[in-house]
Specification:
Elements: E1 23-27, E2 43-47, H1 49-53, H2 63-66, E3 71-72, E4 95-104, E5 114-120, E6 132-136, E7 152-155, E8 169-175, H3 194-201, E9 207-214, E10 229-234, H4 239-249, E11 251-252, E12 261-267, H5 276-285, E13 290-296, H6 310-316, H7 318-326, E14 330-335, H8 339-353, H9 358-367, E15 371-375
Parallel strand pairs: 3-11, 10-12, 10-14, 12-13, 14-15
Antiparallel strand pairs: 1-2, 4-5, 4-9, 5-8, 6-7, 6-9
Family: Belongs to the ferredoxin--NADP reductase type 1 family.
Cofactor: FAD
Main location: plastid
Length: 376
């Protein structure tokens, strides 16, 4: 973290609407703590990652990130459901939610823009970690005049309690989709992603039509708190894993995680890392339960001298990964569809080097419900 040379006290205070990916600047002479609702006598500004990188502010993470004591959540009834909520709202009758905030997540050297978007659903569209919301952008579908746009699915990047821990919000991790003409090199707005640009351009108070929640393949299995979990993400595919890790390490919930969580995150460069401060803090606070490996394709080289991708990290740690899988670990993949062929090729090659048949091993992993894939 970066600090300015001014005589002020830097503190971290969890508030009812605190969004943990933000950095808060607090100024106060007298600091006292009770529970997670304290922040009444402090003035604060919310600064983006770019401001944090400029070394101009006292920067501090919220208490729930900065200490090992876990955050209380509500309503507790969200822990009682035996089955995940599914398709409570459908495309023909979506729920009208409200945008709480939109924050740029990446630094100035990141290729493209990725935003953290908090949506208030009022507790009316509950979900579980690993599920997705559908979003219907405003306007008319150009391919079906008179009809709304098609639903776009986004993995939810928060736990069922949301970033404010009250069960009323959900967070999305959205990369703005833009198109550049290959001949001119200029952006063509007519071909930009309709939904991602709508979300990234949204302001607090804007309305958004959502459907869902949907999906069961990426649900976090909680029947065995000692189970190990290996998470492979590229870019915004880290969204469900942020939810998993907050549930494992940040929130005081009925799920008492005692296993190992291992995250592999592949992005272009350091400025493209998503939720890095959260993950780094878990690494500091839970070194025996959390591992975190980054693959930065434009900054790191693999053993062959080429760009470093997540499959190269998988190969680097293949002995440990295969051992964990043999012991029953769950493995998850989330991100662009193009990530899977390289990963599958790497796993197959490693298996063959170990004298194993990958097709048979994969079949067994699927049969045991250890294999979880969500790509788009």
């Amino acid at each position: 973290m970066a600090y300015s040379t001014v005589s002020q006290v830097s503190v971290a205070v969890p508030t009812g609407n605190d969004i943990s990916i933000r950095r808060s600047v607090f100024k106060s002479n007298i600091i006292s703590f009770g529970n997670k609702s304290w922040a009444s006598n402090l003035s604060f500004d919310l600064k983006s990652r770019n401001a944090q990188k400029s070394n101009q502010y006292i920067v501090c993470m919220s208490v729930q990130q900065a200490s090992k004591s876990k955050v209380g959540v509500s309503p507790s009834e969200l822990e009682n459901e035996k089955e995940p909520p599914l398709n409570l709202f459908k495309p023909k009758e979506p729920y009208t939610a409200t945008i709480v905030s939109v924050e740029r997540l990446v630094g100035p050297k990141a290729p493209g823009e990725t935003c953290h978007i908090v949506i208030d659903h009022g507790g009316n569209v509950p979900y579980w970690e690993g599920q997705s919301y559908g979003v219907i952008p405003p306007g008319e579908n150009p391919k079906k005049p008179g009809s709304p746009h098609n639903v776009r699915l986004y993995s939810i990047a928060s736990t069922r309690y949301g970033d404010s821990f009250d069960g009323k919000t959900a967070s999305l991790c959205v990369r703005r989709a833009v198109y550049y003409d290959p001949e001119t090199g200029k952006e063509d707005p007519s071909k930009s992603g309709i939904c991602s640009n709508f979300l990234c351009n949204s302001k607090s108070g804007d309305k958004v039509q959502i459907t869902g929640p949907s999906g069961k393949i990426m649900l976090l299995p909680e029947d065995n708190p000692n189970a190990n979990h290996i998470m492979i993400a590229t870019g915004t595919g880290v969204a469900p894993f942020r939810g998993y890790l907050r549930r494992m390490f940040m929130e005081d919930v009925t799920f008492k995680f005692r296993g190992l969580a291992w995250l592999f995150l592949g992005v272009a460069n350091s400025d493209s890392l998503l939720y890095d401060d959260e993950f780094t803090k878990y690494l500091e606070d839970y070194p025996d339960q959390f591992r975190y490996d980054r693959a930065l394709s434009r900054e790191q080289k693999n053993k062959g001298g080429g760009k470093m991708y997540v499959q190269d990290k998988i190969e680097e740690y293949s002995d440990e990964i295969f051992k964990l899988l043999d012991e029953g670990a769950h493995i998850y993949f989330c991100g662009l569809r193009g990530m899977m062929p390289g990963i599958q090729d790497t796993l197959k090659r490693v298996a063959e080097q170990r004298g194993e048949n990958w097709d048979e091993k994969l079949s067994q992993l699927k049969k045991n419900k250890q294999w979880h894939v969500e790509v788009y």
